[in-house]
Sequence to fold (222 residues):
Amino acid sequence: MKLFWKLSGLALLVCGTLLAGAMLTGCASSSDNPVFSENPDVPSPTMTGSPGDTISSGADAARFHVGETVIITFSGIDSEDLLQMPPSTQTVNEDGTISLPYIGSVKAIGKTPGELQNDIHDLYVPKYYVRLTIAVNSEDRVFYVGGEVKMPGREIYVGTTTVTKAIQSAGDFTDFANRGKVWLIRADGQRIKVNCNKALEDPSQDLPVYPGDQIQVPRRLW
Fold:
């Protein structure tokens, strides 16, 4: 009988030890070790970012917007008509297009000079010409900041920017600026009121600025 109780106690001790070990292993697996998906398209739990983080290559700086001037030159063919033709200077219309001889409207908005150049080439060749060289350029890409800023004037558009950043590039507000009623005037004449006080707190209200745009900061009444 004593032997029976000793063996029973030993069995209970072994089972308790194994159970405790299993529980510790399970806890470590669930909390201490990160879990990675076998699917490469699913990021691991550590691949996170802060809200509002963006990755920008600056490619938007080279894309055409409404109201911008596009300069197209033609060369490399035997057609006297086209060779004698001076560079075609076009303004991107409100519908985002420019108009060229023979081929009519061509979408320009949202395209880089290289992309527009290729599109124009493919519309002319081989339908109209066997060989043709197209060069697409834009005028200096600038925007304007005026009114109650410390350094009003023309600013070079070097990449993606916003209303508040554009105002900072012009020396920031004067002491008399009405920060709650800043006007963003698009190249096509559209007027948009921007509250820069709110825009500084909420980036979604800090509107993008494009080449040809104007920012006008009025004087406050009191």
Observations:
- The domain at 142-217 is CATH 3.10.560.10 (Outer membrane lipoprotein wza fold like).
- The chain has five helices and twelve strands.
- Residues 1-15, 17-59 have pLDDT under 50 and may be disordered.
- Helices lie at 2-31, 80-83, 113-124, 163-169, 196-201.
